[in-house]
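worker-3 :: picked CAZy families GT9 protein
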Amino acid sequence: MNAASRVLVIKLEGMGEFVQALAAARAIREHHVGARITLLTTDAFREIAQKCPYFDMVEADGKPRDAQATAQLIARIRAAKYDIIYDLENSSRTNTYFQGLRPWPPNWCGVAQGCSHHVTEAERAPLHALDQYALQLSAAGVEVPQ
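worker-3 :: tokens ->
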């Protein structure tokens, strides 16, 4: 169990990747017992995510279409004061979100340069997606059952 009370999980693209990320979401839920866990995703995954027991809230505007909407999303993430953000997307888009939260970003687990729980692309690249998630979550002390 972890003391974080506000957790954000980011997963934006790919149905297959989304389904594979559910194992990581379960591990996050089990690690953060009692926390309010929000998923930032897209409309494509809203319905399935809302039926998933691992998320308390689903926000489906994770891919803003312009700079103004991106700035608004970053401001909303900042205002939510998440204790930790698990970036399961690990893309240039989510790196932009992390960089936009500087100079005092929340704890962030992913590949974004400078994040608190950092895993490099070189470490992740040779691994299957499930193993990539396990490696990433282990950087934040989250145990993923094998």
